[in-house]
């Protein structure tokens, strides 16, 4: 207790009626890597945002070096030696590395003049001292993701951070980059700093951390030494019972020609760089195919181009044998697509609109009498679906934004699965959804498969994919690098594929060529 | 004739330059401040009122600048604190300023349209020794009033604050990546407020110049959309100080020609007055086409 | 998150209160501040407001003036409201109105048509003129992604200068005034009051509001337009053709704006006059915001501002207070309503995200396209 660098004591956080953090107590010691694990929505990020001054706690105390503190904002937390690297980088892309690092703590000459020379020298020195090789003058937008993360870490170190919070830092990294990050984390801990590592990937937790705190439903359920636990134990602490996600299902019986057939597809990302390159895949009726991969390897762009939300630059997508117009969501839907997007708040739902309105979208032709809208019929159907899909705590007039994540997901599913669609694409179906709802969502998808529809699941959660899917595809840098029957799937093997170690440009192929 | 037009272009462009300098601070900080005209009109009114009451030009300019900065603070309050949409709040503030000055013109000076008086002091023309004797340039650059020189000499100062100071780096980074600045502990709202108040300061000088330097009276809506033309110049030059000033000067030339050319050639003044707006639309379209070429989103762009 | 949300009953009274509360609040604050201002200037605010009330509503002559001034505000308010509801910031109604007026003015004096066809032809011309001017920002926004706000802002003065050019040079009527020749009598909208220029245009305005109310609440297209305003990404994902619909919204909005011009030309002035508008297009923003973009609400708020404008000329005569008091009141209302909408939605929508989005959300309709994604 006394040797803690920072302690969170009895933290409670309410958002309106919702209790996000429930009496959480956590000690961070100097020189340790402390993993904070838990499922999505367990309260990890909220707790760290309180420590970082982004959110005020409803009650409870933050004790720093033995003294209670209360941060009015990140600026005060930074001044107290706390740094945070967010999952989504907070960088100004057209500025240099040095400018990004010094922002907010710029060295200045008299009269408020910016001392860029000192800034570049200092940031250069800093990056070498921690073995994070970076050119201070490089423009951030030209750097790969791994290097941008280094900029973020250096930003915190430049501000003399003694406690560094890393929010899901590996989500965007390749295995190599992850390994480098872990080396950095260990060396930071060795220098006496504390690293708080937020994640839900158990293997990483065990690989790098000294102590592990598990969060579940807003509480810290346990804090353990790395040496005394196994991955299984952590997993059961996270979910509160020994699981794991084992989906009850029979063997897949794919039959008939492909429902989704993609050949030689290329798609550009938001910045115009290629995100999907020459990709081909098929999904057949009666099977669930999962797409595994590290985030940012082209999954989003691939799904968006199938849904017609994004234009492809080359190649062909066929849904149920027809080729919908490129970049036309209406055409994709008409061809037989039902799509459950990951971004419920911005893409899949209109949070201000009532549930019946959310459910009517995509079914408008059924509720059309000439130019008029048959709202009563749409409401009636909505009431039926609320019952059928067990959407709790809602009437048809409730705004979708008032629902929990799991129930919002069910609204999406109710709308999409009741379409007469042969192809179902579910993107991150369990993200931000409570365990109970995950099970029923998985059951629904399996039922769809058994009806003979083709189901394509994209998820960042490999465990989910391995238990839910019949076949796994692995995507790496916009290409499919593996196609494995789920029954034969081996975590290590898929991990290697996700990291790109089996791709053409790697050594094994060349050795084969020599032989 | 030509040097005559050039001389009056410099004069006519002065309030545009002031307003543009003010507007580009907020532009660089990522705020589309369209209330420049509103800031100027209150400044013009306050300047005439104070100068009339005290007989002092200094007091007049000071009053104008303070009034404009106060209005800017109100807009910042609504935009930053109450999260009002900047365009709607900007329009509201502008029309509020038009209405309020017309209301006070009637209430204080009992005038419906124009208030002029011999008691309002006038800025004298300054003959710059040395400069005045230069061939060609001399008559062009010498003989303006003080505020004209202030406007053009302010340009390098503005550029310096934005590109050479710590504060300027923060302003520019907020404009590009506000979340980065927030996460770095920069007080984003404070800096936005500062840029807005500086906007008010420069527009205040512009308004005071209009009513005390350019003419010596206050007329209802005398700003005559100069704030809008300044905004057009900012968009055209993407908020870079020197380029923005040059564009503002060009737009000043167009306006000067709108007054002069009809007398000679018979061209309709309206067609010349359209130039700044049309040029800006053209610039926006060209930028848009370039950006579009690299875009892969279908149909609708959601983020503009 | 857990399943915490209880079913929310939606009784009529609280819903009504939520709809009417904020506009009332804005009006109270605005009139309060206006009264304070009057008191500072040495006038009794109660006298001022009493004169405004009497001068606008007492007796048919005053009421007729009020209704005359209400008519253009219904059109422009409705035009703005149609666009706002779909999350589009059409602040170019002033220019669209001018173009509609010019079109009506030209057809009204020059078209060789039988008498019975004159009014419909002029109205159609105004619809087309307004829609055409709105098509510029609509197409540029839809196909090139240029910010429609900036475009509208620039297109307003261009419309004023272009119509000024036409009425001063190209089609100028003889005489000292910059105007087009008078429209033929058959093209006039009948005036039915001796005391004002109130004309049958007000019925067209009422009909437009009724039609739009029906359209908004009863048709599939109206549903789609609302959804685009609430969340355009969702609408696009759900198979609603956003680009096509947004262009449609802008064209309808511009066409209604054009009708505002036609009513002025055919009903009030009898010809197109250069610079005839005192800013009806901008007043329309105030009208639409007070009405929360509802067509029926537009009727009430247009009447309110029409009455204030009408009373203000009495105010000027009797108390020597500038009629611009009304403009001040009007835009205090806009300022306050602009503030209200964002913070009420924001607190609710983003409970777990601490950092604010870079661009403020639009307020009448919390549409998604106002935000930038990280």
TrEMBL record, chain A:
Under InterPro entries, the record lists: AAA+_ATPase, ABC_carbohydrate_import_ATPase, ABC_transporter-like_ATP-bd, ABC_transporter-like_CS, P-loop_NTPase
Q: Does the keyword Metal-binding apply?
A: no
Mostly located where? membrane
Q: Where is the ABC transporter domain?
A: 6-242, 260-502
Cell compartment(s), UniProt: Cell membrane
Membrane topology reported for the UniProt record: Peripheral membrane protein
- What is the protein name given in its UniProt record? ABC transporter ATP-binding protein
TrEMBL record, chain B:
Q: Where in the cell is it found?
A: Cell membrane
Q: How does it sit in the membrane?
A: Multi-pass membrane protein
Q: Does the keyword Cell membrane apply?
A: yes
Q: Name one GO molecular function term.
A: transmembrane transporter activity
TM helices/strands, residue ranges: 6-27, 34-53, 59-80, 87-109, 146-163, 196-219, 240-259, 271-291
Annotated InterPro entries: ABC_transp_permease
Instruction: Kindly state which keywords UniProt assigns to this record, in alphabetical order.
Output: Cell membrane, Membrane, Transmembrane, Transmembrane helix
* Pfam families assigned to the protein according to its UniProt record, in alphabetical order: BPD_transp_2 (PF02653)
One GO cellular-component annotation of the UniProt record comes to: plasma membrane
Q: Where is the signal peptide?
A: none
Stored PANTHER family: GUANOSINE ABC TRANSPORTER PERMEASE PROTEIN NUPQ (PTHR43370:SF1), SUGAR ABC TRANSPORTER INTEGRAL MEMBRANE PROTEIN-RELATED (PTHR43370)
Q: What is this protein called?
A: ABC transporter permease
Q: Which organism is it from?
A: Lichenifustis flavocetrariae
From TrEMBL, chain C:
Q: Name one GO molecular function term.
A: transmembrane transporter activity
Instruction: Spell out the InterPro entries in the cross-references.
Output: ABC_transp_permease
Sequence intervals crossing the membrane: 20-42, 62-84, 91-111, 117-140, 149-168, 194-215, 246-272, 284-308, 324-343
Topology relative to the membrane: Multi-pass membrane protein
Q: Does the keyword Transmembrane apply?
A: yes
Arranged from A to Z, the UniProt key words for this protein are:
Cell membrane, Membrane, Transmembrane, Transmembrane helix
Query: Mind telling me which CDD domains this protein's record contains?
Result: TM_PBP1_transp_TpRbsC_like (cd06580)
Concerning Pfam families, the annotation shows: BPD_transp_2
The source's superkingdom equals: Bacteria
Q: Name one GO cellular component term.
A: plasma membrane
Q: Where in the cell is it found?
A: Cell membrane
Extract the PANTHER family matched here: ABC TRANSPORTER, PERMEASE PROTEIN, GUANOSINE ABC TRANSPORTER PERMEASE PROTEIN NUPP
Q: From the Swiss-Prot or TrEMBL record, give the protein name.
A: ABC transporter permease
Question: What is the protein's species of origin?
Answer: Lichenifustis flavocetrariae
């Amino acid at each position: 207790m006394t040797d803690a660098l920072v302690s969170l004591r009895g933290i409670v956080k309410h958002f309106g009626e919702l209790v996000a953090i429930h009496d959480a107590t956590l000690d961070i010691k100097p020189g340790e890597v402390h993993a904070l694990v838990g499922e999505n929505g367990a309260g990890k990020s909220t707790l760290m945002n309180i420590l970082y001054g982004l959110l005020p706690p409803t009650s409870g105390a933050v004790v720093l070096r033995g003294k209670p503190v209360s941060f009015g904002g990140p600026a005060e937390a930074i001044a107290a030696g706390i740094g945070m690297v967010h999952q989504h980088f907070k960088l100004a892309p057209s500025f240099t590395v040095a400018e990004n690092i010094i922002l907010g703590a710029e060295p200045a000459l008299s009269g408020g003049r910016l001392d860029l020379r000192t800034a570049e020298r200092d940031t250069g020195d800093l990056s070498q001292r921690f073995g994070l090789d970076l050119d201070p003058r490089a423009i951030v937008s030209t750097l790969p993701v791994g290097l941008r993360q280094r900029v973020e870490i250096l930003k915190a170190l430049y501000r003399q951070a003694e406690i560094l919070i890393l929010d899901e830092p590996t989500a965007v990294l390749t295995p190599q980059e992850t390994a480098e990050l872990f080396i950095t984390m260990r060396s930071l801990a060795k220098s006496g700093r504390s690293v708080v590592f937020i994640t839900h990937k158990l293997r990483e937790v065990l690989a790098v951390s000294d102590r592990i705190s598990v969060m579940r439903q807003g509480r810290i359920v346990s804090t353990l030494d790395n040496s005394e636990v196994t991955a299984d134990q952590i997993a059961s602490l996270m979910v509160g019972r020994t699981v794991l996600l084992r989906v009850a299902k029979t063997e897949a019986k794919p039959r008939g020609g492909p429902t989704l057939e993609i050949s030689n597809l290329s798609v550009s990302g938001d910045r115009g760089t290629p995100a999907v390159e020459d990709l081909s895949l098929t999904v057949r009726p009666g099977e669930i195919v999962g797409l595994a991969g590290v985030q940012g390897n082209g999954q989003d762009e691939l799904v968006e181009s199938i849904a017609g939300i994004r234009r492809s630059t080359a190649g062909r997508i066929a849904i149920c044998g027809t080729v919908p117009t490129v970049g036309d969501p209406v055409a994709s839907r008409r061809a037989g697509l039902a799509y459950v997007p990951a971004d419920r708040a911005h893409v899949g739902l209109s949070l201000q609109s009532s549930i019946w309105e959310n459910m009517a979208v995509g079914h408008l032709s059924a509720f059309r009498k000439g130019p008029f809208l048959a709202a009563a019929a749409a409401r009636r159907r909505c009431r039926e679906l609320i019952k059928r899909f067990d959407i709790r705590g809602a009437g048809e007039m409730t705004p979708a934004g008032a629902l929990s994540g799991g129930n919002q997901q069910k609204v999406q599913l109710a709308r999409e699965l009741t379409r007469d669609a042969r192809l179902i694409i579910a993107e991150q179906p369990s993200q931000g959804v409570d365990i109970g709802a995950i099970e029923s969502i998985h059951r629904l998808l399996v039922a769809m498969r058994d009806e003979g529809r083709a189901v394509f699941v994209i998820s960042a959660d490999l465990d989910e994919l391995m238990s839910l899917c019949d076949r796994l595809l692995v995507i790496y840098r916009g290409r499919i690098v593996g196609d494995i029957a789920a029954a034969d799937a081996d975590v290590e093997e898929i991990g290697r594929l996700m990291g790109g170690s089996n791709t053409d440009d790697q050594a094994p192929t060349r050795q084969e060529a020599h032989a | 004739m030509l040097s005559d037009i050039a001389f009056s272009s410099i004069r006519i462009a002065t309030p545009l330059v002031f307003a543009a300098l003010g507007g580009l601070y907020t532009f660089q900080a990522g705020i589309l401040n369209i209330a420049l005209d509103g800031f100027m009109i209150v400044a013009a009114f306050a300047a005439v009122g104070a100068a009339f009451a005290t007989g002092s030009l200094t007091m007049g300019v000071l009053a104008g600048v303070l009034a404009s900065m106060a209005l800017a603070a109100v807009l910042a309050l609504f935009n930053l604190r109450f999260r009002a949409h900047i365009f709607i709040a900007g329009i509201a503030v502008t029309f509020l300023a038009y209405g309020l000055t017309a209301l006070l013109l009637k209430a204080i000076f009992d005038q419906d349209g124009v208030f002029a008086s011999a008691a309002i002091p006038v800025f004298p023309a300054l003959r710059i020794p040395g400069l005045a004797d230069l061939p060609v340039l001399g008559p062009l650059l010498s003989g303006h009033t003080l505020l004209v020189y202030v406007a053009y000499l302010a340009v390098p100062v503005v550029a310096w604050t934005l590109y050479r100071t710590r504060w300027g780096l923060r302003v520019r980074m907020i404009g590009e990546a506000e979340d980065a600045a927030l996460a770095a502990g920069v007080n984003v709202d404070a800096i936005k407020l500062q840029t807005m108040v500086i906007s008010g300061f420069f527009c205040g000088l512009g308004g005071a110049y209009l009513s005390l330097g350019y003419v010596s009276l206050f007329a209802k809506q005398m700003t005559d959309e100069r704030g809008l033309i300044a905004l057009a110049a900012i968009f055209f030059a993407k908020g870079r100080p020197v380029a923005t000033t040059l564009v503002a000067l060009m737009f000043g030339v167009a306006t000067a020609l709108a007054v002069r050319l009809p007398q000679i050639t018979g061209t309709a003044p309206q067609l010349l007055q359209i130039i700044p707006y049309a040029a800006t639309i053209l610039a926006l379209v060209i930028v848009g086409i370039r950006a579009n070429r690299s875009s892969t989103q279908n149909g609708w762009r959601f983020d503009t | 998150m857990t399943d915490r949300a209880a079913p929310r009953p939606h009784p009529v009274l609280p819903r009504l209160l939520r709809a009417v509360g904020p506009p009332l609040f804005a009006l109270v604050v605005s009139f309060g501040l206006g009264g304070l201002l009057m008191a500072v200037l040495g006038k009794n605010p109660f006298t001022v407001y009493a004169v405004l009330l009497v001068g606008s509503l007492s007796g048919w002559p005053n009421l007729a003036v009020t209704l005359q001034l209400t008519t253009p505000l219904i059109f422009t308010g409705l035009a703005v409201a149609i666009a706002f509801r779909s999350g589009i910031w059409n602040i170019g109604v002033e220019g669209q109105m001018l173009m509609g007026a010019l079109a009506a003015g030209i057809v009204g004096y020059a078209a060789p048509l039988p008498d019975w066809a004159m009014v419909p032809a002029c109205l159609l011309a105004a619809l087309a003129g307004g829609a055409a001017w709105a098509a510029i920002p609509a197409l540029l926004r839809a196909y090139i992604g240029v910010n429609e706000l900036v475009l509208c802002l620039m297109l307003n003065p261009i419309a004023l200068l272009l119509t000024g050019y036409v009425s001063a040079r190209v089609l100028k009527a003889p005489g000292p005034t910059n105007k087009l020749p008078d429209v033929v009598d058959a093209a006039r909208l009948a005036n039915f009051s001796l005391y004002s220029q109130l004309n049958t245009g007000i019925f067209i305005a009422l009909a437009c509001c009724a039609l739009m109310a029906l359209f908004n609440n009863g048709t599939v297209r109206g549903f789609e337009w609302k959804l685009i305003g609430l969340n355009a990404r969702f609408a696009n994902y759900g198979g609603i053709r956003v680009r096509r619909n947004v262009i449609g919204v802008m064209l309808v909005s511009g066409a209604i704006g054009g009708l505002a011009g036609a009513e002025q030309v055919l009903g009030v002035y009898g010809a197109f006059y250069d610079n005839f508008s005192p800013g009806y297009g901008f007043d329309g923003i105030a009208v639409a915001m007070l009405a929360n973009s509802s067509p029926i609400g537009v009727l009430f708020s247009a009447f309110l501002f029409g009455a204030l404008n009408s009373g203000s000329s009495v105010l000027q005569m009797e108390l020597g207070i500038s009629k611009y008091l009304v403009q001040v009141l009007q835009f205090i209302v806009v300022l306050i309503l602009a503030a209200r909408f964002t913070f009420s939605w924001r607190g609710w929508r983003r409970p777990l995200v601490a950092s604010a989005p870079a661009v403020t959300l639009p307020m009448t309709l919390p549409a998604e396209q106002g935000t930038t994604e990280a």
